[in-house]
Amino acid sequence: MASSDGNKNTNTEPWGGFEDNIIQGTGSAVIDMENMDDTSGSSFEDMGEMHQRMKEEEEVADEAEATEEETGEDGEFLGIKGIKGQLGRQVADEVWQAGKRQASKAFNLYANIDILRPYFDVEPMQVRNRLIESMIPIRMINFPQKIAGELYGPMMLVFTLVAILLHGMKTSGTVIREGTLMGTAIGTCFGYWLGVSSFIYFLAYLCNAQITMLQMLSLLGYGLFGHCVVLFVTYNVHFHSLFYILWLVVGGLSTLRMVAAVISRTVGQTPRLILCGTLAALHMLFLLYLHFAYHKIVEGILDTLEGPNMPPIQRVARDLPVVATAAMNANLNSMVVVLCR
Amino acid sequence: HHFAGLSDVSISGDIPVEGEINVPVGTPSQDKEYSTLDEPVKDTILRDLKAVGKKFVHVMYPKKSSALLRDWDLWGPLLLCVTLALMLQGGSVDSKEDGGPQFAEVFVIIWFGSVIITLNSKLLGGTISFFQSLCVLGYCIMPLTVAMVVCRLVLLGGSWGFSFIVRLIVVTASFSWSTFASTAFLADCQPPNRKALVVYPVFLFYFVIGWMILTFSPSA
């Protein structure tokens, strides 16, 4: 801990270090409860604010010195004409500095990535453990299960899903009429992650469940690990039965894990049922949609029969009878040929 | 006695005196900086090209040098990005597409991906600045651009099956080279136990670009 009061430049960390004068200067030792549950005790946001205030103080001090220097030097040499020019220059400088200060304040307020810093504070070992745990449902639903509030893993999983989706779209020859392949993939994955998280968070708020937005984002993000695995396998190995088995097993396991975590934080039968049903349905249906919306075999058959504007669920039902009728027709034809000989 | 005669020496009026009489006026700080505004355009372009070329050499032989980081510039990445995007055009799965979206897609992937990786690396506690990281990631696309040129040449002739193997090998080699080169610069600016967390997005980024190159097939 730094013990000197007047020293501003002894800090080496970017967030300002522990300086006594700054802590005394803010004057408030109240812990902001709003921020506590998400950051689990770390006061990075307070450090971010202190750092900002310190920077602003430095800027103001520098400006004061700069304007003093200019009035000191130039006034001596150039006489009356110099004073007029100096006044104009000073006004222009003041306007520039004021504008710069406004812009940097706005920038620091909205584009301050230090707000997100605590959510990326993970070790590779932790990420690996959480990935594995996302496939293992925990049966304890009478006490709230611990959900890690972290954004690195979910973001990487969403981007991995985007990459896998791109691969699937390219190999299945999907034609996107309005928009681009990349836009569709990114929009689908991020839209699912952010949109469904918000929706389930809203439902949880209605059903009085104890879960924060960050935890929901994190939970759903890690739930996409199962999706990534299934899609990676089935976009390369095209067996329908294999996909159904994987859909049930892998998708089911990750859904169960998410559902158990959410249920353990809800009280009452009806709220639990609502949350459980919605989450399970959305998660499983998303995997189904991703597989069938970008799948080569189904596209090929459908394009020969009718237009490509069929919803995905109906594509599944049509697939088997078409194959069956095609096989039956082939058999009938061969039987007719044999009979006619 | 030599010097006695010199007291009579005087400068006559018709011998010109040469020299410069200059009293510096105005703020002296402006003259201290080397002004590059007055030099001919050719010098500026040549100097920038030399800087870009030096960085290309650094990427080809990735040693731990700080030239890429100290004097960052975005000319090289822009050049590589435009070249790659132009070469990836003209090949589409469906011939009805005019290849326009492909150019924009490549651009968006490269720049958006670089921004995301930079933000991620900064959030994980890296000490590299925003534009330095953009510069490094952009320059390390060079092996993939070279692979694209090779793939295009291979596709100009030769049978299909054999050419796929060759292209696969070339693209895999260049993609690993890109990842290795960029991690040689980026991973140094991270706390030591988090290198894997920074390397993974870089790996994904170059994997997507490499895969776009590999699946490129020009429309007949």
Automatic annotation (TrEMBL), chain A:
InterPro entries recorded: tRNA_Mod/Golgi_Maint
Does the UniProt entry include the keyword Cell inner membrane?
A: no
Reading the lineage from the top rank, the first entry is: Eukaryota
Q: Where in the cell is the protein located?
A: Cell membrane; Cytoplasm; Golgi apparatus, cis-Golgi network membrane
Biased composition (Polar residues) is annotated at 1-13
Q: Where is the composition biased (Acidic residues)?
A: 57-73
A biological process term (GO) from this entry: cell differentiation
Listed A to Z, the keywords are: Cell membrane, Cytoplasm, Differentiation, Glycoprotein, Golgi apparatus, Membrane, Transmembrane, Transmembrane helix
Q: Which GO terms describe its cellular component?
A: Golgi apparatus; plasma membrane
Q: What residues form the membrane-spanning segments?
A: 151-169, 181-204, 216-235, 241-261, 273-294
The region called Disordered is annotated at 1-73
What does the record say about its membrane topology?
A: Multi-pass membrane protein
Q: What does this protein do?
A: Involved in the maintenance of the Golgi structure. May play a role in hematopoiesis.
Q: Which PANTHER family match?
A: NATURAL KILLER CELL-SPECIFIC ANTIGEN KLIP1, PROTEIN YIPF3
> What family is reported?
Belongs to the YIP1 family.
Name used for this protein in its record? Protein YIPF3
From TrEMBL, chain B:
Keyword Lyase among record annotations: no
Query: What Pfam families does UniProt report for this protein, alphabetically?
Result: Yip1
Can the keyword NADP be found in this entry's annotation?
A: no
Q: What's in the GO CC field? A: Golgi membrane; trans-Golgi network
The record lists the membrane-crossing segments as 72-91, 103-124, 136-158, 164-186, 198-217
What are the entry keywords? Membrane, Transmembrane, Transmembrane helix
The membrane topology of this protein is: Multi-pass membrane protein
Give every Yip1 domain span: 61-212
Q: Where in the cell is it found?
A: Golgi apparatus membrane; Membrane
Major subcellular site:
Golgi
Give the GO terms filed under biological process for this record. Answer: endoplasmic reticulum to Golgi vesicle-mediated transport
**Record family assignment:** Belongs to the YIP1 family.
The protein's matches in PANTHER family, at most eight in alphabetical order, are given as: GOLGI MEMBRANE PROTEIN YIP1, PROTEIN YIPF6
Name it: Protein YIPF
* Organism expressing this protein natively: Oncorhynchus kisutch
